[in-house]
Amino acid sequence: MGIDLGGTKIYTALADAAGRVVAEVKVLTEAARGERAVLHRLVQTVEEVLRLGGVPRNGVRAVGLGVPGPLDVARGIVYHAPNLGWRDVPVKEVLEKALGVPVLVDNDANLGALGEHTFGAGRGVDHMVYVTVSTGIGGGLILEGRLYRGWRDGAGEIGHMTVVPEGPLCRCGNRGCLEAVASGTAIGREGRELVARGEGRGILAAARGRPEAVTAAAVSAAAAGGDAEALALLRRAAGFLGLGLANVVKVLNPALVVLGGGVVEGAPFLVGMVDEAVRAHALSAAHGAVRLEAALLGGKAGVMGAVALALGA
Amino acid sequence: MGIDLGGTKIYTALADAAGRVVAEVKVLTEAARGERAVLHRLVQTVEEVLRLGGVPRNGVRAVGLGVPGPLDVARGIVYHAPNLGWRDVPVKEVLEKALGVPVLVDNDANLGALGEHTFGAGRGVDHMVYVTVSTGIGGGLILEGRLYRGWRDGAGEIGHMTVVPEGPLCRCGNRGCLEAVASGTAIGREGRELVARGEGRGILAAARGRPEAVTAAAVSAAAAGGDAEALALLRRAAGFLGLGLANVVKVLNPALVVLGGGVVEGAPFLVGMVDEAVRAHALSAAHGAVRLEAALLGGKAGVMGAVALALGA
């Protein structure tokens, strides 16, 4: 059983031993109803999926759970998940008591990496970096064939690498993080700034003429239609992604970088732009040239990573 | 047996099973005499150290060798070592034939990391980043208790992370690498530029009044004496080191960063300056605060890493 717990949706899937999904359910998280309600809803979705799949509780080997925030993986305690309003929630213990099944917890970006490694673009690749570009920017590392978590389960914070010292403020409190200049939030903000200056007419048109509706999706739609200003915004974001990823590549020497998340799905040509930017900073090819590829699992990466985590239990 | 093969010196040490050095020899590399002469000299130093230690050849379990450049670790072929004038040299095969003992080869920065991890500042630390600041800037990673080499043995190129896009040209061909703005070479160059503008009188004095003799060592000596311009140059280099290392810390979540190399030995107060810069970019402490420490082995880090490599054979 895999669960992807997001700020908006809970996505739960039951898979067989080969990772084929047998039954799945998506419900709204409704985080505003509070921690206990969300925990209760998690248990409910597991029970619903079991019913759908016609599988008894004792037919489940383990539950994998992805959470949107930093955590203590061994103890399964979520330190802080702003999208859920959670602080120090012992989600592993709560679910294990309620379900009577081992529960393994990790953060959503790590499980996205594990999902793409096990079932997606990174199958068979032992050294892989996964980056998800959506509202924020997250990352996960597969090193020597396994998820690498670091000293205190904090590895992979690619979105908070500083790429523009003294740049725009990030929600983490630092300035010039990759997330602050290349996430969907940043691209949407820059689109709105353009429109507010009376420019970006193609972008405004893609938002049906409503300046407040200019988001990364509108910028991507305009760019897909060939709009030069939208393309310039995305190329700028791709340049920052390429700079950050080139640095990660120099430190880790991966064979593959997988780019996922809603912004990449909405603008698949970003992968080529980022690839170009990575190559502009690359070292000579003594150590092999890294490949960049789009993620294959789309919105399923997290839940499939949770399935992979449970299968490895 | 450990050997640290540098562009200037060959440092060879025989150690017992606990890593205690029994006998050691340092000779000039004399790389200008060519590849065959250097390979012959390596064999000679091994034989000399064995004689000094009173140990027969068959008393050696393995030889570890550090080389100054990228290589194929499994096959022991050095791709390129500019300081030696080497290209595609099968040093493992040559030495194994000459010595009749297993030879393990790795690059000097990786062996510095392994040396500090096994015998120095990183003993008992499973997640450690090692950086050496001297003529260039190198790095080595200890992840989950072991040396991490990446897909094609190219991991740890911390010196070639881009920290100043469009910055000064690096010898690797890219612009604004950490090495191009914070190595001993960069600090020396900036010192000479200051002096050429008629400034940096304290730095010039530390170089005995000879502008051409201004090096990182002279800058460090002036800084140690409280010279404000020298301190500003070092603080600038420390800022770049802190920026690059903060990014590495976000990606890898290590418990410890060990700073070594001639520049750090010549200016131990750099460690505090870099620590401050790393903290200025750090994320909140959910994942534990990384420690920064000075290397403990000095010029012995590489040869002791080679000993550790041989002990692990």
Molecular structure report:
The structure is a homodimer of 313-residue chains. The model of chain A has no long low-confidence stretch (mean pLDDT 96). In chain A, a hairpin with a 2-residue loop joins β10 (137-143) and β11 (146-148). Chain A contains 11 helices and 13 strands. Chain A is globular. Chain A folds into 2 domains: 2-114 and 300-311, Nucleotidyltransferase, domain 5; 123-295, ATPase, nucleotide binding domain (Nucleotidyltransferase, domain 5, 2-Layer Sandwich). Chain A is of the alpha/beta class. In chain A, α7 packs across α8 (228-252). The relative contact order of chain A is 0.15. Chain A binds chain B through residues 70, 79-80, 126-127, 139, 141, 143-144, 148-158, 160-162, 165, 172-174, 243-244, 246-248, 250-255, 281-284, 286-288, and chain B through 70, 79-80, 126-127, 139, 141, 143-144, 148-158, 160-162, 165, 172-174, 243-244, 246-248, 250-255, 281-284, 286-288.
